[in-house]
Model the fold of this input.
Amino acid sequence: MRELARRIHVSQSTLWIWLHNENGFPHPKAFKPEHVERLNRVLRISKRAIERAVDASRHVYTAREKPLPHPPLDAFRNFIEIMEHDDRQTISRSYVVNLAKRLYSGAFHE
Done:
């Protein structure tokens, strides 16, 4: 993967994100025609085939179909896990309140 990223002139992390995006291949704003050209040269796959593969991998939500929500966060379980792994003997009230607020906002993002 590192060699492919080097040959198409993108960072290795960008290529990793492109290949692991849960909505298919790269986002249209990040994947430009010059990337198609470079992949065409390096992999010897036609530009049209690359474009079709990218388009086919994307799922476009329609007015009738809503995207699935993120799985809910079990805030209290996460709070317990964080407290179990905190080695300090004492913690401040403000730390606990801040942690609870962050977990609460993550559990109920609407």
Observations:
- DSSP finds six helices and no strands in the chain.
- The helical segments are 2-7, 12-20, 33-43, 47-57, 75-84, 93-107.
- The radius of gyration is 22 Å.
